[in-house]
Amino acid sequence: MFIIIRKVGRMNKKKKKIIRWSVAGVALLLVVLVVASLFGGQDAGAVQFSVENSDLMAFNPFKSTENRLDNSLLQYGKVLSKYQEKGYKDYTGDSIAIDLKSAVEWDTESYVKFTDAPVYDAEVEGIKYYDKLEEKWITVTGNAFPNAFYTTEGGTTVNFVVDVKESGLYSLNLDYLILDAKDAEIYVSLMVDNKLPFKEASNMELKRMYSFYNTELSENLDISGNQIRPKQQEIFGWQNTTMTNPEGVYRNPYKFYLKEGQRTITLKFYNQPGVIGGIQLTAPRKSVSYEEYCASVGETDKVYNGEAIRFEMEVPEYSSSVSLRMEYDNDYASSPASYKVIRYNVFGGARWGSGGDTVHWVFDVPESGWYQIGFRYQSLTTNVASYKEILFDGQILFEDEYCFPYADGWIGDCLKDADNQPYMIYFEEGQHTMTLTNKLGPLRHTYQSLDESIESISNMINQIVKITASSRSESGGYVVDKNRDWDLQKYLPNLQTDLENYVKTFQQCYADIKMANGGKLPSYGSAVKVALELFQELEEDMEKVPTSLNDITDALTGLSNTMVSVKEQAITVDYMVMSEKGYGYEDAYTSFFEDFYVGVIRFKDTFIKDYSAVGTREMADEDMVEIEVYVSRGREYVDIMRNLVAEQFTPDYG
């Protein structure tokens, strides 16, 4: 009995010790959670930075005579550098409208003469498109261009003689309407006196417009209350654009030199049918500073001091690409909430990363005054900043390209300068528009340098393979006799110089990539560093070049991938905020407990949620036939098929 009592006593002491340690552990855990919630969150905003940003391009260091080439063979940025060297100035006068009836020559691939070509009048004939939501034909209304002309899919070329009163640099502005055809752009070629002003002038674009329809939430729910993504349709209407690089490579629209006197302007439209309503030669867009913008507004000092105004951005007025669409995000702070049931509450994502893609929103301003403009957004790639052109009411106010700095996770931040001071923008009461266009930003120089280096290195490899008679192995690599030495400089006298230029180029590219992303190095920058170290080694010991062909080829593959990554600067946007100066964005972030709560909800759903019902619509007719499809594929394939059925098949066919 005594022994038993002692054992029980020891057990009680052991239990008490366990309880004490458990309580202490729980208390410690709570303290850690509170500290993590208070101090372990995200930064209050992304840090803005300054960066040199110019459309002027340097000439290819691997081609000594490139600057002597005809402008039609040079990229626009290099032609712009030649313009600067020659002291050409921008035209500053009023826009010059070209009389469309003054065409001296008209030709299409079907040989339609100008006098026989159909003339379009928006007021009389009209352009119609079928609205799937309204199930009726809609006539495009708006500005009438009685002298407009049709262009054919096969190609339409028209020549105009223009009396240029003043020598200078001009931009080309067009009014156009794309007709119903394939989901593609109208391509445009420009020649001045039968010569391309620069290489890219042969492949400019007029973009289409796409919009969501039937965005009413109540009409797009599945049987579980999840939202089904609204479909898109093309919308037709007059657009006005100043010709620019379709991939967003340059920050400003194109400009080209016109000498005083009689000049022949040749325009060719091809790939898609359309209507050209107006052609103007305009003064190039002039960049102004923020201070100049504020001075141009006037002396008004009315600063908005009301409640912050939030505009949801998941449903834009229209976009330039059918691939851009609404997405859903289950972050606790995303608006509207999408962590219990699916709500398409954000816009963009990985699809909104290609240069040149444009998105257009419409918003209302309640009263005239100065506003701080902010966004809740998320960068999708670590350490990658995103460059966008921002137009309000079709105009650049200042900052040709605005940088959305990288920050970890969702952030809320206002438009601000390099000193991280908020910009204030003046709006009159009423409806306004905002347009965001993807741009390449200062990395255009990196992209060009990598492209030229890859071309030069590829040529070098081909020459070395011929000199050394290298063969290919079964794995695709080069087989070089390591027991032989070659005097490569005898056959490649520029090899030493080229290796030095490769090193200088990759050093500059590496520095530029970090600079363009606020001092942070994205993952794609590592390929540039690998190439830099390789060519530094080869520059110091050129005898290693023949036996390093496989390493050089691997480096080229990495650089090619970097070129692709440089052009991808995707972000996701949730909403825009108009507010008074000094407004914070605390509600754009989530705390540790909020993230934990969402995690619990999603974990619980894995046990009780019927994922097979996601995207399944209610049957409009009880007698409607159901089709069951069995798929021997992974869940991602099933989700794709289910989405296609819910978004496209069931609404049209039941």
Give a description of the structure.
Helices cover 27% and strands 24% of the residues. The longest helix is centred in the N-terminal third of the chain and has 38 residues, at 2-39. A hairpin with a 4-residue loop joins strand 4 and strand 5 (136-139). Helix 4 packs antiparallel against helix 8 (549-566), helix 6 (495-516) packs antiparallel against helix 7 and helix 7 (525-540) runs antiparallel to helix 8 (549-566). Strands 1, 3, 6, 8, 13, 14 and 16 form a seven-stranded antiparallel beta sheet that branches. Strands 17, 19, 20, 22, 25, 26 and 30 form a seven-stranded antiparallel beta sheet that branches. Mean pLDDT is 84; it is low at 1-9, 36-44 and 109-125. The chain is globular and about 90 Å long. It contains ten helices and 30 strands.
